[in-house]
Amino acid sequence: MDTIIRRIWWIVIPTALAVLAFQLYWLRMSYVSQETSLRQIASDALQKAHDVTLVESVKMLAPGEKQDSNRQFRVSSSVSINRGDSGMLDSLLAKSKTLPGIKIISQESRHKGRDTLIEREIKPESSGLNVTKLMANVFSLSSLVEIDTALLAVNYRKELQNRHITLPFNISFAPADQHIGFVTLPVIWQQKDVLLVVHFEGINNLLLFKILWPVVLSFFLVLLIIGCIWTLWRIIVRQKKLEVMKNDFISNITHELKTPVAILRATNEALLSFGGMNDAEKTERYLRLGQDEIRKLQGLVDNIMALTRLEDGDDELTGAGEDISLSALLKAVTQRFLGLPGVDIQLDIQISHDQLHSYPVALKTIFSNLLDNAIKYTIAEEKQISLQVRENELHYLIFIEDQGIGIAKQHLPYIFDRFYRVPHGDLHEVKGHGLGLSHVKKLVERLKGTISVESTPGKGTIFIIQLRKS
Length: 470
What we know:
It is a single chain. The protein is of the alpha+beta class. It folds into 3 domains: 2-62 and 86-210, no CATH class; 231-310, Helix Hairpins (Orthogonal Bundle), CATH 1.10.287.130; 319-468, Heat Shock Protein 90 (2-Layer Sandwich), CATH 3.30.565. Helices cover 52% and strands 15% of the residues. The protein has 11 helices and 10 strands. The chain has helices at 2-61, 86-98, 124-127, 131-142, 149-162, 203-210, 212-273, 280-311, 326-335, 360-376, 436-446; strands spanning 169-175, 183-189, 192-200, 322-325, 343-349, 355-358, 383-391, 395-401, 450-456, 460-468. The strands form 3 sheets. A 5-stranded mixed β-sheet has the order 5-7-8-10-9, with helices on one face. It has a 3-stranded antiparallel β-sheet with strand order 1-3-2. Strands 4-6 form a two-stranded antiparallel ribbon. Strand 9 (450-456) and strand 10 form a beta hairpin. The radius of gyration is 50 Å and the shape is elongated. The two termini are 49 Å apart.
């Protein structure tokens, strides 16, 4: 059994740990995925806000400029080039061909006709160009406009709100070689290459909220795993207890079977081999002794068979029952034990009406088992047993009290289990097989009654039976 349990744990624990590790990995990857997605969205919003801010800054520098009906930006900037610098002019003219929408006009061409101007203009709608980004790149590269961080913050907040992000943030500048902050953007600030850095507040809470359902699912899965392990542990513990009970039962039943068999063998040999048959008195004594042992064996077999029948629903509770006198039945049961040495049973019946409609055989079995236990577990030579009967409006209450060894509190919930005996190791000071109380409880429940127990180790035990009057 222990080997099987160890194998089970060797399978269960690594499996549970593997599932938990997978859950942690899955949550981690979900968190990283959400973080990457949020970083990309925030970066795109920052780039757009930066471009819009540059264009708006240019507009403020040239308030007289307007947009035409085609919404084509017209922003001018002049750079003086000497006549001799034809190479620079050629270079600018060449670059203007790769920057659609930018117009470069030489001083000489101002006096020529429009068809001779060195220029190229393309409408943004027809070219598919992002004019805002184009203008921002041009002005950034030429360092004509510096970034207004306050205006940038306003535009960035608008872009974030358009993307359903409402986290508070702050914008700052950092050296180009320091990649700090949640979002960064390379820009030129005061003629230097720097990083535009955005720090968000509560970013972790937002990311955790985005993976809330995976977290909840993982939490319930972990609870399920813990519950399964706990249930498995309970089952294993119970199985170990059952194994101990089974071994104890086998040990005790073997002892109770071997003792009568040994006595019967001894008496039989005495009668056959040592001339016992010639002594009538000795023969009678041996025969009575053998008869007692046979009765014990018969009682043991009857208890086992009765419990089996009771579990199968085939027991002595057949028919409609009959009207019986409770006091007369109890007196008949106690009379069987009064002849035992040292046994004194005090019967105290205080009821107004003792007629009960029930099954007399079942009641005799119940009270006989409880009185037998009370006598067996009272070690003293004088065995004082008290049997009291009281009543309330609906029930009879029967109290069977002894002054025996008692039962420890931790064993009380299990004493009605089949085969259970309060463990004393492999000792047999008190004979028993762990079936009597289980049989009693099942019979009481079939009679629609209840049975409970109170006990103090070293002082005794009280069994309380409650039976319905009708």
